[in-house]
Amino acid sequence: MDKDTKQRIIEAAQILFWEKGYHATGVAEIQKRAEVHSGSFYHFFKSKEELLEAVLEFYLQLLYPVVMAPSFEKYDDPIERIFGVLAGYRTQLIETNFTLGCPIGKLASEVEKEQVRARQLINANFEGWKKHIADCFEEANIRIGVAHNSMNLANLTLTVMEGSLLQVLAEQSIAPFDNAMIPFREYIEMLYKP
Amino acid sequence: MDKDTKQRIIEAAQILFWEKGYHATGVAEIQKRAEVHSGSFYHFFKSKEELLEAVLEFYLQLLYPVVMAPSFEKYDDPIERIFGVLAGYRTQLIETNFTLGCPIGKLASEVEKEQVRARQLINANFEGWKKHIADCFEEANIRIGVAHNSMNLANLTLTVMEGSLLQVLAEQSIAPFDNAMIPFREYIEMLYKP
DNA sequence: TCCTAATTTGAGTGATCAATCAAACCATAG
DNA sequence: CTATGGTTTGATTGATCACTCAAATTAGGA
To answer: Which residues in chain A are contacts of B178 at CB distance < 8 A?
Structure first.
């Protein structure tokens, strides 16, 4: 067997939740994709919600190596690193013909108040993302010799990214992303390239 | 009867889709809230999806009078009008204890590619929203005597708004909204209050 | 008044939902 | 070898899903 059954289920759910969302994905569909029968599924997860939590924990593991590392290795300049991360989402959208945006954002819009643990994990993902981006702004502060609020800027960066992806997926066009990026980039460069 | 049966169904669906989303809301639940039986429901709407489209058309009607007008009547300054609209969403979040964000954004994240008409209507709502905000930036351009790209700025405004709401609902705290607003407002004031 | 068409009633359709369960299977330890 | 416990099979559960339909009711025009 190439992978643990449990991990196979997690990765099947990961892609299906990403493509179609949590509610629109049936447990039977996950089982089929993971090549697992019902009893085996419920041997590892006591509910669909518990699987969702496992998926979100897995995303937390992937945050740095998959989302951040490619850009951080490519660029040294911290501001370029940030825009490199954003460019990664852009590439993903183009390559999948506007199907795959931010998996965490997708799940965030579907998770209800009562799903406490899932919401905590979504926040942990967002906070982790913002922390890495804030570190970039902080490093840029040091290099340029300024003192902008790195956490607020990281918060704005995530906000712009999530807001853009929402519109891109709705419009099935990259324009909202690019058009939002123009003034956003202008603002950031105004702060860091004086 | 206080209202048309059809309109009663639309308004029941409107609030339920807003609170719980499209997939999480059952047709039976809509019927119950609208005090309508199943046959009556399907007399007016041939499917749940057709109802969704009617709801989105209704939102298009409400866009100016409900979303824009309150702020436009309160303020004369076009930039204040924009932040007044954003403040409206903020108030809504606070008053509903972080349950009701942007109904269009909520639906946008759930509608699939195949639901062509629904997606068109979501885009029409977004485009209408951006047009009103772009008009404000355009008016500000004239008053201040500058020539910033009003459509790109309106696009960024919607982006920041939608991205903020996503985080607010996930975190169940107004902080992401306020923290994103700080640098966003700083940027806009940098452009228009020289 | 009667006719017609729009509307409403409410039981009922099959499909799919998440979840359960006993039995079988298999790997490992003693 | 046997015993044990983790794992898998796959049929099956009741609930809920969106949706249908014939019959009853209502409303409006001739």
So the answer is: none
Domains: count for chain B: 2
In the predicted model, residues of chain B with pLDDT beneath 70 are 1-2, 194
A158 lies in which domain range? Answer: 56-192
Q: Is the CB of B25 under 7 A from strand D?
A: yes
As a whole number of Å, the end-to-end CA separation of chain A is 57
Question: Does residue B98 lie within 7 Å of nucleic acid chain D, judged by its CB?
Answer: no
- CA nearest B1: which of B35, B31, B30? B35
Confirm or reject contact between A159 and chain B (CB < 8 A).
yes
| CA triple B44-B112-A34, angle to 5 deg | 125
pLDDT in tens, A88-118: 999 999 999 999 999 999 999 999 999 999 9
| CB of A166 less than 8 A from some CB of B | yes
Domain check: are B66 and B125 in the same one?
yes
Same domain (yes/no): A65, A42: no
For residue A167, pLDDT beyond 70: yes
State yes or no: pLDDT of A1 exceeds 90.
no
CATH number of B61's domain: 1.10.357.10
Q: What is the 3-state secondary structure (H, E, C) of chain A?
A: CCCCHHHHHHHHHHHHHHHHCCCCCCHHHHHHHHCCCHHHHHHHCCCHHHHHHHHHHHHHHHHHHHHHHHHHHHCCCHHHHHHHHHHHHHHHHHHCCCCCCCHHHHHHCCCCCCCHHHHHHHHHHHHHHHHHHHHHHHHHHHHHCCCCCHHHHHHHHHHHHHHHHHHHHHHCCCHHHHHHHHHHHHHHHHHHCC
The whole-angstrom separation of Cα A107 and Cα B160 is 19
Nearest protein residue by Cα to C1' of nucleotide C6: B43
Q: Is residue A51 part of a domain?
A: no
Q: CA(A46)–C1'(D12) in Å?
A: 18
